Every structure is written in structure tokens, then in C-alpha cells.
Amino acid sequence: MSSSDSDASSSAYNSNKRASSSNSDAMLPTSNSEKRTSPSSSNASKKRVSTDDILDSLTATGRQKKMKLSDVLLEYRTAGRKAVLTLNPFASVSLTFHYGMMLDKGGVSNSNISDEQQARYHTFYNGILDMVPGFCATLDEISYDELKPYITAINSAMSSQRSDDFASLKHPMLEYILTNRNSDTLQPPIPKSSCKSNRGTNHPRLARELCPRKWLDKFDIDVDLGIQRLQDGTWPLLSTNWPSFLYAADAIYDSEDPNIGLFRGHAGIRAFQHLYLGPAAAGSEEHNDDDSKHGRSKSKATMYGLTKVTPQAWAWAMCAAWFSLSACNSYKVCIGSFNLEDFFFAIIETLDDPEDPWAVDTMAWINEQVFGKHAAKAMTAAADDTDSDLAKMRAKRAARKQGSTLTSATNIVVRGPITSPPSVPPAERPSSPAPPLTPPRPPLQATPSTSSPPRALTPLSDSESFPPSPAKQPPAIPTAVLPKPVPVAHKKAKPVPRPKPVPKAKPVPKPQSNTRISARLSAGAIQVEEPTTEAGDAGILDVNAPAPPKKKPVARRGKKAA
Predict the structure, then answer these.
(1) Comparing C-alpha atoms, which of 305, 309, 303 is closest to residue 287?
(2) Which of 330, 86, 278 shows the shortest CA–CA distance to 172?
């Protein structure tokens, strides 16, 4: 084969291929409506997304768009934020669910974690389950891998809440440590910037607030020496030594009794009001949780139903205040030698003791300063309201209910329903007539003598006793069974007919004189015409009389035809 033949054959092959491809393209639909048709658009009805589909979409890869945790796991994010403010802001969510689920199933931990730490995890675990309805039942049906999205949502929400609180309190806390915010100023002033390097022990006033109260008197004597001792660790900042801003300004410190004046500082009260009631409520004398003061958004106390200061909430506010005064820029549990988590639980241990009079009195004072005197009195009255009007009304209502219950029970016993005797089938009924209800007894005869003792009644003989009974036994008296009353239908009395009125007599018309009254009776084709008398007496018409003969018509005489 020559090259020209091969070129011709290849060109023919290419032309046939182009023709076939054009034919196949012509067979495809070209309308826009058909191009837009997809399997997803064919299903118009939306189905409810199950938990498995949500988890699959969270871990899906490729072109499928991931669903946001804020949309899918909103309840878990809310629980994470609330846990920071009311439970434990430093808990590890993964370890919490690990130990919590293990202890719920009766397991025993072999790790090096102390029993106290395990108890903290278990408390946090139960608190999360209480915040999210139905979460406990979900844990029994999913594996640990399926639990990861929930843990991630709670953990991220806790981190966001901590960051928000630290950022919100970062600059206002510099004013809250001042006794009079309107007249006092911080010296030297600190500009509002993101860097906190000029805070903490690097600032004389902030170093005084963070200095442990036990060394504050020496710090005031020589401020520079006190700052140097704080920085080099001679006076270590530990969570077991209470900082000075927690004490009242006029409190006299007693090394033997550090409780005097503790948690009564104005800086701590303002920090708590700022976080839980809003910035406008910090240091306010009105002590009202008014949402209009801090914008349209609700305060944390309103959102999470916090009606009083709890040891956990107070401890977190003090941790946030300490972090705001420190020189640390990012969140850390351990800042130098100070551990925020240990500081948090040290405050709870001090205040969460209902048997300690000092702890009870301190919490009452804190609630009064935060929510006002009236709110504190209302909380105290709610705890012991046995002498209130409502308590007395409740007691009387309970007594009436108890009395009505006893009365109804007595009525059931005394006024029991009357039961009819059991029916006997006809085959078992005796042929003899039924005996009377009581056997006949002879009348008793009274003796006229009064000197002799009264005679005893003689028992009935065997012939008189009916039905027969064993010897030396009184006859059994059957109990009469009263028949049930038969309802009687009352007939309504028929109404008495009223007499019909007597019709009045019609007046007789007066006869007309010198008149001619004609009467015509039509009976078939007969017409009768009768004259009347001249004297006015109407003639009597005899209907049965024969009709008069008809008169023959008389022919008219006309002109004869010509």
C-alpha cells in the first residue's frame, strides 16, 4: 500500500468518527430544564436528619459541605458555656466523659489520678448530663468515636467562654481596683493595648493587689523591695495564699485567723457583677439585673437562671479577676507558681460549707452586695418561710385533704354497697316453699306476782324451731336483704282544655220593601226566577218543584226576501 492510500484511509476514518460523535451529540437532550435535573432536586420533601447523618456529615470529606457545630450541636455548646460559669471552667472534657462513663458502669480506675480528682470529673460529668436533656440515653447507644463531635462542641464552647470573660474584664478591671472610680486614677496609667507586659508585678499598684495579704504591710513600707521579692520568688504567689484584692480595704489582717475580711473587697464584687450581670451593673447602687443597661442581650445570670451567688460562680469570677491583673497574655492554668485551678477549688472549699457560720454569713453578705438587700432578704425568707401566709395556707389545705381522705375511707367501710344474694339455678332450688325470714315465736306471758324473781324465757321446742338447728344452739336469724328501689316514672298531667268561646249571633238583615229580589239556582242547565211579594215577605223557593216549561222562541218577522 502506498502512502497516498494510507492517507486517504485515515482521513476517511477521521471523518466517520466525527460524524458518529456528532450523531451521538445530537441524541443528547439540549433543553435547559433537562440539564438542571438532578437526583437531589427530584426529592422535594425534606426528611429529618438523624444523628448518624449528622455525624457522617461532620466527618465527611470531598465536595460535601460540613455542617457547623453551632447549628447541629447548639445545646452542647450552650452546656459548655454554662459549665464554665457554674461548674468547673478548668475540667478536661475528654477525661470527664472517660471517668464519668466508667464510674457509671461500675468500673474502677487504675490510673494515677487521685480520688478527689475523679470525684471532680464525675461531678462535672453529671452536671453536663443535667444540662442536655436526653444526652444520657444517647451515650448508651453510641461509641467513643461517635462521641467525639459532642466532646469537641463542649470543649470549644468552654474555651470560647473563658476567652470572652478574660477579654471582657481585661481593661475594666483596672478601674474596679480603685476605691472611687470617679475621682481616683491609676498611677502610673496603663494604656489600652493588647499587651499585658506592664501589668502584674511590673506595676506597683497591680503588684500590691496581687501580693498575698500576709505580706502587704511589709510591701507598703518599701514598694520597690516588695516588687523585687515578688519577682524573685522570695514572696511566692501561691494559690494557698489569698491575694490582697480579696480583702476589705479597712480589714485588719490576723495571721492566726485569715478569715477576717476575706472575700469582702470591692474589686471582687465589681468583677462578679461585670461578668454575671453586665458591665453597667458593676459598682452600681441599684443592684438590678436590668438587661436594658447592658444592651439588648441578656445577662449571664438571666440566661442560665442564676438567682444567687454560688461558690462556683464566685470562684470563677475571682480567677478571672486575678488573670486580668496579671501580666499573662494568653490563657494558662499555671502562671508562674500560681495555679488557677487550685485557686478555684480553694475558694469553693472555703465557702461551700453550710455548717460553717462564717461561710454562711460571708455568702449572705456577697449576695446582698451583688443583688441588693431586698434580694438577699428574699433568699433568706425563701429558705425558711414556715411563718409566711402562704405556708399557713398550704398547711391548712393539706389538713383538709387529709381529713377528706379519711372521711371517704370511713364511708367506704360503713356505707358499703348492698350486695344481692347469689342466684340459684332452677335445678338446685328446693321444691318446698321458702321459709319465712324469722321463725314464729309464742307471745310472752307476764306473771302478776312481784315478789318472785323474773322468770327466764323458755327456749323453743324442737317442733317449733324452724329451720332445724343443732341442740342447745339458738336459731340463726337470717339477714334481711332489702330490694333495690324501682324508679317510678311520673306521668305528666294532661292539660285541661279551655272552653271554646260561644260565637256571637249574626244580626238579621232588615227586609227591604218595594224591592225585587231575584234568585237564580243553577242545577245543570235549569234557571229558576221567582218574584217576591209586595209586603216584603220573601217567597219560599221550592227546589223540588218542577221547572217551568221553556218558552218557545218566537221567530222574528223580517222582510221577506224578494
Answers:
(1) 309
(2) 278
CA-CA distance, 313 to 250, in Å (whole number)? 25
Among 21-30, 349-358, 417-426, 537-546, the minimum mean pLDDT is found in 21-30
Do the beta carbons of residue 346 and residue 116 sit within 8 Å?
no
Do 319 and 64 meet the contact criterion of CB atoms below 8 Å apart? no
Residues 6+ apart with CB under 8 A from 548: 528
- Closest by Cα among 285, 348, 286 to 317: 348
Q: Any long-range contacts for 387-392 (C-beta under 8 Å, 24+ apart)?
A: none
How far is Cα 349 from Cα 358, in angstroms, rounded to an integer? 13
Distance separating alpha carbons of residues 6 and 427, to the nearest angstrom: 121
222-257 pLDDT per residue, tens: 999 999 999 999 999 999 999 999 999 999 999 899
Residue with cell 472549699: 349
Element (H, E) at 271: helix 266-276
C-alpha distance from residue 308 to each of 180, 369, 435, 544 (Å): 26, 11, 83, 121
Amino acid at 165: D
Determine how many CB atoms are found less than 10 A away from the CB of residue 241.
17
Asked whether 203 and 179 are in contact (CB, 8 A), the reply is no
Cα 269 from Cα 368, distance rounded (Å): 10
The answer to whether residues 170 and 191 touch, using CB atoms and an 8 Å cutoff, is no
Confidence of residue 67 (pLDDT cuts 50, 70, 90): low
Of the candidates 306, 314, 308, 364, the residue with the CA atom closest to the CA atom of residue 344: 314
3-state SS assignment for residue 100: helix
Q: Around Cβ 57, how many Cβ atoms within 10 Å?
A: 14
- b/e per residue 426-436 (b: at least 16 CB within 10 A): eeeeeeeeeee
Residue whose C-alpha cell reads 443592684 in the numeric block:
287
Angle at 155 between CA 149 and CA 159, to 5 degrees: 145
